[in-house]
Recover the amino acids of this structure.
């Protein structure tokens, strides 16, 4: 698996290339540099976890990658294309799911909304695609409901279904499971594994949960410091399929977890 | 169709069980019936020219509804509907445009605040000069007066659309059309609707006022003429009719609001801890 991605990397450019991103909010005396010189790549079919303390600038970084925010310096490439505005091959699952869904639209209509702009999709195809991706997150029968009629975990799955239906090559997720209970969280984590196995996507997952970063990631990018930089990129060579109980109880997993944790600890002091 | 709508609205408000539905209707209706009965009997053998019996008022109303329906009532309703329609369409369109282009809004704001401060009725003589006696003048007055609350509320609503909502729209590359029609305007709809509610009341005032001035038709015209000729029963009948029309307009509007803002109630219900 890892072998394969390495070979691909030599043939074509990575799915996502981030070079020297920095971001300063405000100007003059008010200026605060949040991100300082962030560089990394994400390859095809790879899940990259990004961990860092709260306020480190993870959301800021993701917004730069998504073309929603212009970095102060540095560039983002999607394959060969320079990102200056939201690219078509990229979808975002936002941190705050309750605000990211449109409460006036049904679940089905929410998932279909972004597909309206996709060229060459008929109404029936749009409908079918949305239904399919709702099914893949286990919400096949909730299409007619409204987001506010669903639990938090279900709403987050709708947001994921919306991103999947968009069929991006790169999926950005900003602490997608931060505000759901532990059980729902592990369900959604396993859902992410299944999505990864089924769709060919590069997934960037921002999280502040170290266990989650290791469980879901092929690599973990540790971010910290002021301004925030990449302190270490930790490869996670745990084979798939991964499982909540067996994977998390292996020594390998425990060691990686401890390693990432120590990385964050040492750099935040 | 409209009665059906009203019934549905009442039902929906009343909750789910038929028992509670019936109870709600009874609670809402007993007082008006009682007051009507009191009015009927207390005025039964009235000899006052100013306060005729309810029976003669209702007879005058019946006569008005049969004989002057096409000549006066229909034109009143038509002008009202037309003026309101123009105000709603242009108010939402211009409000959305200004709300989506803050630079434009800031440039126009002082002018808009000034024009909004002009009472709608003050336009009557002006419109009379421009359009002459007739429907156009009344429609223009209503459209002008009803435009402001809708337009200003639309601007407010559009400006207060959640930043996250805009971000979603942008990151999924929604077309300008979808962004406005499926995201921004629905998000602003609670404010737009409350602006429209104001406009409905305003336009009832304006239609009557416009019919007092240089008019040859309309319910307001009937009222004014009958008062001048001391036909008190007809005068009261037209007043009664105006009240009923205003009430019906309000009920219809509540129904529209009920349907359009279902999601809004759902969201609010949820944040208060209930299940939608
Ligand atoms: N639009 C903005 N203008 C000014 N400062 C901002 C803006 N957005 C974020 N910041 C600041 O940038 C810093 C990083 O914010 P960001 O939301 O990216 O952090 P985060 O790592 O995602 O945190 P969390 O884990 O809590 O979500 C914070 O100190 C925040 O106050
Ligand atoms: Mg964040």
């Amino acid at each position: 698996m890892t072998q394969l991605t390495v070979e691909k990397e030599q043939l074509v450019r990575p799915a996502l290339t981030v070079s020297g991103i920095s971001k300063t909010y405000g100007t003059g005396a008010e200026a605060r540099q949040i991100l300082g010189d962030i560089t990394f790549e994400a390859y095809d079919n790879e899940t990259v976890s990004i961990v860092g303390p709260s306020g480190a600038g993870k959301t800021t970084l993701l917004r730069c990658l998504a073309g929603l925010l212009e970095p102060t310096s540095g560039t983002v490439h999607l394959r060969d294309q320079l990102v200056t505005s939201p690219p078509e091959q990229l979808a975002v699952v936002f941190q705050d799911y309750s605000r990211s869904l449109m409460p006036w639209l049904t679940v089905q209509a929410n998932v279909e909304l972004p597909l309206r702009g996709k060229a060459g999709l008929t109404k029936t195809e749009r409908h079918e695609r949305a239904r399919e991706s709702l099914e893949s997150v286990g919400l096949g029968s909730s299409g007619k409901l409204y987001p506010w009629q669903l639990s938090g975990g279900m709403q987050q799955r709708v947001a994921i279904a919306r991103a999947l239906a968009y069929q991006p090559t790169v999926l950005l997720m900003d602490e997608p499971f931060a505000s759901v209970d532990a059980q729902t969280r592990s369900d959604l984590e396993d859902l992410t594994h299944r999505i990864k196995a089924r769709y060919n996507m590069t997934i960037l997952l921002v999280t502040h949960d170290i266990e989650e970063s290791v469980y879901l990631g092929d690599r973990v990018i540790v971010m910290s410091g002021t301004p925030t930089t990449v302190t270490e990129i930790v490869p996670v060579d745990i084979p798939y399929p991964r499982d909540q109980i067996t994977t998390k109880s292996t020594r390998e997993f425990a060691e990686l977890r401890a390693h990432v944790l120590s990385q964050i600890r040492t750099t935040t002091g | 169709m409209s009665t059906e709508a009203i019934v549905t609205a009442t039902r929906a408000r009343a909750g789910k069980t038929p028992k509670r539905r019936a109870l709600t209707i009874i609670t809402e209706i007993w007082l008006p019936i009682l007051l009507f009965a009191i009015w009927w009997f207390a005025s039964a053998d009235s000899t006052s020219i100013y306060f005729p019996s309810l029976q003669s008022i209702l007879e005058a109303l019946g006569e008005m509804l049969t004989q002057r329906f096409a000549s006066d009532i229909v034109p009143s309703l038509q002008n009202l509907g037309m003026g309101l329609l123009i105000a709603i369409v242009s108010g939402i369109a211009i409000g959305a445009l200004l709300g989506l282009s803050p630079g434009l809004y800031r440039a126009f704001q002082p002018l808009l605040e000034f024009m909004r401060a002009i009472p709608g009725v003050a336009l009557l003589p002006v419109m009379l000069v421009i359009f002459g006696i007739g429907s156009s003048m009344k429609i223009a007055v209503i459209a002008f007066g009803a435009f402001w609350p809708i337009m200003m509320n639309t601007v407010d609503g559009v400006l207060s659309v959640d930043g996250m909502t805009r971000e979603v729209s942008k990151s999924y590359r929604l077309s300008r059309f979808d962004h406005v029609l499926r995201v921004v305007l629905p998000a602003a709809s609670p404010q737009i609707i409350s602006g429209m509610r104001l406009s409905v009341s305003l336009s009832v005032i304006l239609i009557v006022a416009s019919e007092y001035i240089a008019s040859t038709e309309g319910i307001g015209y009937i009222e004014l003429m009958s008062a001048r000729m001391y036909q008190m029963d007809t005068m009261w009948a037209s007043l009664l009719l105006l009240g009923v029309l205003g009430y019906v307009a309000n009920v219809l509007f509540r129904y529209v609001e009920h349907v359009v803002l279902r999601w809004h109630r759902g969201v609010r219900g949820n944040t208060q801890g209930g299940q939608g």
Remarks:
- The mean pLDDT of chain A is 91.
